[in-house]
Amino acid sequence: MRYVVSKVRVLAKQEVAEQSVALLGQDGGDGRLVLVSYDDWNGTSYESNVLVFGEPLGQPIPRKRAPSRRRSRPPGCAEPG
């Protein structure tokens, strides 16, 4: 799946906590992607978060499955289980 960045927000940790359902809730079902990272290092901890929102570009493209990599067993070896 490919995404396009639709919005970037920098919020204090308290704001993220207060708005967590609106920011990170999964009720929309719209397939969005939210990346959360840290910002504003004060020497001891991070004081804010960076949230990057992505919107899907179209529908997922099915990928071909790689061939199975099962190793053959030497003669006389039983399958586990």
Overview of the molecule:
The chain is mainly beta and 81 residues long. 14% of the residues lie in helices and 37% in strands. A three-stranded antiparallel beta sheet has the order 1-3-2. A hairpin with a 4-residue loop joins strand 2 and strand 3. The chain is elongated and about 65 Å long. The relative contact order is 0.28.
Overview in brief:
The protein is mainly β. It is built from 2 helices and 3 strands; from the N terminus they run βααββ.
Helix content: 10-25%
What percentage of amino acids are in beta strands? 35-45%
Q: Classify the secondary structure makeup into a structural class.
A: mainly beta
| Rg for CA atoms | 22 Å
Count the beta strands. Answer: 3
Strand order within the widest beta sheet: 1-3-2
Distance between the termini: 37 Å
Overall pLDDT score: 84
Count of helical segments? Answer: 2
Q: State the low-pLDDT regions, or none.
A: none
| Largest sheet descriptor | 3 strands, antiparallel
Shape: elongated
Element pattern in H and E? EHHEE
Write the topology of this structure.
Elements: E1 3-12, H1 13-18, H2 20-24, E2 33-41, E3 46-56
Antiparallel strand pairs: 1-3, 2-3
List keywords for this structure.
about 15% helix; three-stranded antiparallel sheet; 3 strands; about 35% strand; about 80 residues; elongated; mainly beta
